Amino acid sequence: MDLLQFVLNFKGTPPWLNATALTALTDRWRPETHSFHLPLGEMSITLEDIAMISGLPIEGRALTGKVRAAGWRQRVAALVGVEPEPWTDETRKDPRPSGVLFSWIQRHFHRCPRDASPLVVERFARAYL
User: Fold this and answer.
1) Strand ranges for 35-81 from DSSP E
2) 42 and 84, same structural domain?
3) pLDDT tens sequence across 82-126
4) 17 and 49 share a domain?
5) Which PANTHER family match (predicted)?
6) Cα–Cα separations (whole angstroms), residue 98 to 5, 9, 53, 75, 77
């Protein structure tokens, strides 16, 4: 799913992956129903499944990760393909010293175009996350 960079923002090391199990699940995924078709029946993916796959906790305190202000615009551009414009108002303090405002996400990623390439769809999905 190409979410490793997203997971690494919150964890220091990548999660352990069982390549054989992932290959078996990939072969049984049906995009038309958004579920896995297994010999024992149909299976949908749950929040707990994502937690096990990604290694991210789903209980307890909110997971926010480390905030690194330096180079955040370039990191945003690498993930979603659009670099936020620099703050130019000299009379007010920048309201986003290390991240984008929700209004910026809405303005740039409100609706994914119908004829979007897979790369554009991936960028919209990252912005949604």
Assistant:
1) 35-38, 41-43
2) no
3) 888 887 778 887 767 667 888 888 999 989 999 999 999 999 988
4) yes
5) PROTEIN MAIN-LIKE 2, PROTEIN MAINTENANCE OF MERISTEMS-LIKE
6) 18, 14, 28, 10, 13
